[in-house]
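Appendix B. Raw example, untouched.
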Amino acid sequence: MKDFNYHSAKDSKEASKLASSNSAFLAGGMTTIPSMKLGLATYKDLIDIKNIKKLSGIKVSGKSVIIGAATKHVEVANSKDVKKAIPSLSSLAEGIGDPQVRNRGTIGGSIANNDPSADYPSACIALNATIHTNERKIEASKFFKGMFETALKKGELIEAVEFQIPEKSSYQKHPNPASRYAVVGVYVAKHKSDVNVAVTGAKSCVYNDKEMAKALSGNFSSSSIDGMDLDSSDMNSDIHASAEYRASLVVTQAKKAVDAC
């Protein structure tokens, strides 16, 4: 690991001011630190944001759940408010990694990193989330741009994530047995006016499967997507699953999610 300058910011304004073209924000460090140790990433400055009080905590209103960016996975998993408002979101958080990761990793870090197999991006898409930064509000549908790529600008800091409370929802994934990342994960959410079928792990970036969403909007039953043949041409293929197998898994996990709603 190469030398770097460590900073501890007292608020979002200071954190943003300290940011440069070769810096990174640090909260849980579940991706940043291993990447630096392996030489995959180097930074001149690391800006610690975990002590900024504004970035932690969970608030529930009549229509949404707002979670501070530095809130840990274990806090979301154990929150009585989240379990009551969006139980599927609590369940998702409980299934991330292992206890060590859940006790250090944060929701903001996961979303900002946008790993193609991460769980939280699918929750953002399925639950029509709005990402609150220190500069603006970004709809989830416009936030995730590609593999490890988001709409965040340099120095822009995620402060909170606001999820719409759905009528019904469930997240089901086929996990990698070692990392617990999703080989394929599907988050189905039924809202008053639409249905979202957010898929992670299958492609280079999380996406909303419009074909299945349309079918479920007409008939919210797993039978409506039974036997659906998805195009696998742009799906991931690796030692864990071929593109064709992932396409099949997407349908399987989507059916499980609908049945679990």
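End of appendix B.
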